[in-house]
Amino acid sequence: MKKNLTFLLMLLGSSFWVTSVYAQHDNLANVSADYMRTGGRTAALDAADIAVYNPAGLVHLDDGFHINVGNQSFIRKPTHKFAFPIPGFNAEKEYQQDSPDLLVPNIYLAYKMNKLAVFGGFYISGGGGSLDYPNGSINSNLIILQLMTTPIPGLGAAYSSYYAGANSSILASSFYMTPMLGLSYGITDKLSAAVSFKYILATNKQEAHVTVTDMYAQPPVQLPTEFSLESTDKASGFGFTGSLDYKFSDNFNLAARYETNASLEFETAVTTDDFGILQDGALNHRDLPASLSVGAGFHLTKNLSALLDFGWYFQKQADWGVEPKSGTEWSAAAGDVGRVAIGLGYDIGDLLTVNGWWNYTKYNYDDMSLYYTKLGVFETVKASNWSAGLGGRLNISDRFNLNLAVVRTFWKKDEVVPQSIVTPLGALPYDVTINNSITSFALGLNIRLGGN
Fold this sequence. Notes:
Blueprint: H1 2-12, H2 33-38, H3 50-53, E1 64-76, E2 79-82, E3 93-96, E4 101-113, E5 116-133, H4 138-148, E6 151-152, E7 156-160, E8 162-186, E9 191-215, E10 226-249, E11 252-259, E12 265-273, E13 283-285, E14 290-299, E15 304-314, H5 330-334, E16 337-348, E17 352-363, H6 368-371, H7 377-380, E18 385-395, E19 400-411, E20 415-423, E21 426-435, E22 437-449
């Protein structure tokens, strides 16, 4: 034991830096049940949720009030496995997300009269989920190794306070609460435009716990055996959206939407930090990046419709802070993200529409290995993926319809992310293998009040 411990002290003396753990996803595209049913809404013209997807198209709704409410639930299974290149710690370990996210709601409202539409809503623009590793993860293992390098007070740097840890856990959540308000106007019968404003109140919470099971010290000393970290990061900011829609005919529609970057500077409030790794009141940027979406909608036959949807997220332009060792901007390491979707809908009489769709999201990393050194990324698995969805819209009456959808999202199997532990003796490389899948469920209701 002493031999391994002395080796680790020499090896890991200045190896780790630690920051807050976020269960964060930026720029959520899935912010309505109608989106989950169809796979894309940029060129849609049929419900109040287009207040966030195609606000310029709201002028093509029937006159009167339109309401869209919905909720989404997610069963996420991100996993990662690894073996540290250190004697005594090189057994392979695997960790997986535990609990589902059951409540991600939205509500959109629109009032249409002649060529004018006023709209608003509330949705989750980023985050929208939790990170739950009750048995720890790669980062709790790194915390344990960091504890091993802590000298015992009064005994000098030759002694490590702690040898091993167990019952470690990491829990985090991230929600970007977003109210929005806007105006849409029909410039001509075919061309319309809209502008809107959104306010973002973002809250990230994180907890980490480590229980020490073995201590090494001569002579024996009384040491704490449980370590906890609990903190909350909050930020607020605003952004604007501009939208254009051109309705060539009842069978063909084009639309585009641009959302500006929303500057978010998070302030850390520390509740407990037995590790000594956080600073109360620290400020860190994590902007919500600008995005561009374009879409086309077609009626191929009387009953068959199709959509095409494309989105681009300008992450490299956002301020996400700087990686402390290399000085590289986190957003530059992450690169931009693009997505493309195609979907079909078929009307079965006037009662039911069935939908099927496919989406591919591409993460254009400039340095994936570097970005994955950011705590929380291995736990959430941010990488290219594809989704397939099935859904249906039940037309209860001409004023009410119900949306249902189930979506499955897949990642590349056993993708390897190279990592290394940087030590005074050099970098010791090791690989982390990541996998992920998500099963999503959505339920929503559209209501029209007033009008004919």
